[in-house]
Design goal:
By secondary structure, the protein is mainly alpha-helical. It contains three helices and two strands, in the order H-H-E-E-H.
Length: 90
């Protein structure tokens, strides 16, 4: 997916976003590759990726990892829209 286009769109929408390559990406990569393997095994040709979504303010989490639910929903919309408008990987 066009990761850089998604990041730019999120920031232009005033939403905090960053590309993370932390050690936590192991689980994300595992989920992503398992999903893509399943798609290929079933003959599907999906585009996909893994999007981290922060806890909402009412959830129990570190204060810096919380976000308003409306902003979370808007961020998912912005990310999907950017992916649809920028089909090239990047």
């Amino acid at each position: 997916l066009p990761v850089n286009a998604i990041l730019l769109a999120m920031r232009e929408a005033g939403l905090p976003a960053e590309i993370s390559n932390s050690a936590g990406s192991f689980v994300c990569n595992h989920v992503f590759y398992a999903l893509m393997h399943e798609a290929a095994a079933c003959g599907h040709r999906w585009r996909g990726d893994f999007l981290h979504v922060p806890h909402a303010f009412d959830a129990t989490a570190r204060p810096q990892a919380k976000m308003k639910l409306d902003d979370i929903v808007r961020g998912i919309y912005v990310a999907l829209n950017a992916a649809a408008l920028n089909p090239a990987s990047g």
